[in-house]
Amino acid sequence: MSDLRLERSYPVSPERLFAAVTQQADLLQWWGPEGLHVPEHALDLSRLGPWLSVMVNGEGQRFKVSGQVTSYDPPRSVGFTWAWHDDADVRGAESHVTFTVAASEGGATLILDHRDLSDAEAAQNHEMGWGSSLNKLDALFS
C-alpha cells in the first residue's frame, strides 16, 4: 500500500477553502485534472453518504470514480472513500482521501491525504491527477 500527501496554501479564509472542497458548485469548477470536465455527478462532499463523478476528456474517454463520505467536520476536514470503475462499471480497489483545512499566515492551507493506494505506481498517478486538479483550485482563487 502507498500513501500520498499534497499541501497547498490559499489567500482565503479556512471557511471559504472548506466550502471550495466540499460544496458541489465549487467542486465542479476544479474537480478532475486539467482538460477534463464532469458532465455526470453526484458530487457533494458536504454530507455523509455516497458520491460519484464521471470525468470526460477531450477525446470522449470516461473515467468514473465513486465512494462514500465517511467524515464531515466543518470547517476542518472531510474524508471519503475512493475507487475507480472499469469499463464494465465494476468498482475497483478502494482507497481513502482526507481534505484537511487549517488556518495559515495569509489565509488557509489544504492538506490532501490519499491513503491505501494499491502501489507506488497508483500513488504516482494520483499525485499527477490531484496536482493537476489543485492547479484548477489555484485558479479559482487567483
UniProtKB/TrEMBL annotation:
Check the record and name the Pfam families matching this protein: AHSA1 (PF08327)
Its domain of life? Bacteria
CDD domains recorded: SRPBCC_CalC_Aha1-like (cd07814)
Q: Which InterPro entries match?
A: ASHA1/2-like_C, START-like_dom_sf
Domain named Activator of Hsp90 ATPase homologue 1/2-like C-terminal: residues: 12-141
Family designation:
Belongs to the AHA1 family.
Official protein name in the record: Uncharacterized conserved protein YndB, AHSA1/START domain
What is the originating organism of this protein?
A: Shimia aestuarii
